[in-house]
Amino acid sequence: MAHDIKTSSLHIREVSWTHPDAEALRGEMAAEVGPRYSDRVSTADRAAANSVDPQSVHLTVVVYASGREGDEPQPVGHATLRWNGADLELKRMFVKPSHRGGGVSTLILDTVEDAARKAGRPRLILQTGDRQPDAVRLYEKSGYSRIPIFSPYEVMPFSNCFEKVFVQLHG
């Protein structure tokens, strides 16, 4: 499973959905983002819409940051691609606050977009909430366009859904 890419002090690794670093980063994401929406949609509805069936996972990546020489690299970013019908959907993209603005999100997006292209998908879709303006700005800056709310997010009308359509080269 292991092709790794190095970029300065960042290193991205394909891991299993159940890898301890992936699970820990998803827990941090839930702790940060969950409370922003606690006054909306029942927890059960939100949990059902946001759940990821491990059988649907195409790819999970974790970004590690190297500190001083000799220090163990630390997990600082996460994302998963899952199948949603014929599309691949970006899920659980998260960067630790201490590493935002340092290229982690760009490395993640480049990696998952490349994986979607390699899977023969003409686009990548994603959903984020309206109380995550930094995420919305990142996706718009990265060439994603808004699309109508797609399944299973109909129970969350405050969703922002996006797609990035890949340029098809004919030749």
Describe the structure.
The protein contains four helices and eight strands; from the N terminus they run E-E-H-H-E-E-E-H-E-H-E-E. The protein is α+β, with helices and mostly antiparallel strands and 171 residues long. An eight-stranded mixed beta sheet has the order 1-2-3-4-5-6-8-7, with helices on both faces. Strand 1 (4-7) and strand 2 (10-15) form a beta hairpin.
Q: Mean pLDDT, as a whole number? A: 90
Order of strands side by side in the largest beta sheet?
A: 1-2-3-4-5-6-8-7
SS-based structural class?
A: alpha+beta
Alpha carbon gyration radius: 16 Å
Number of strands: 8
Globally, the shape reads: globular
H/E series, N to C? EEHHEEEHEHEE
Distance between the termini: 31 Å
Regions with little confidence, pLDDT below 50 for 5+ residues = none
Largest sheet report: 8 strands, mixed
Strand-residue proportion = 25-35%
Tally of helical runs: 4
Which percent bin holds the helix content?
25-40%
Tell me which oligomeric state these chains represent.
single chain
Brief summary:
By secondary structure, the chain is of the alpha+beta class. Helix content is 27%, strand content 33%.
Describe the SSE topology.
Blueprint: E1 4-7, E2 10-15, H1 20-33, H2 43-50, E3 57-65, E4 74-84, E5 87-95, H3 104-118, E6 123-129, H4 133-141, E7 145-147, E8 159-165
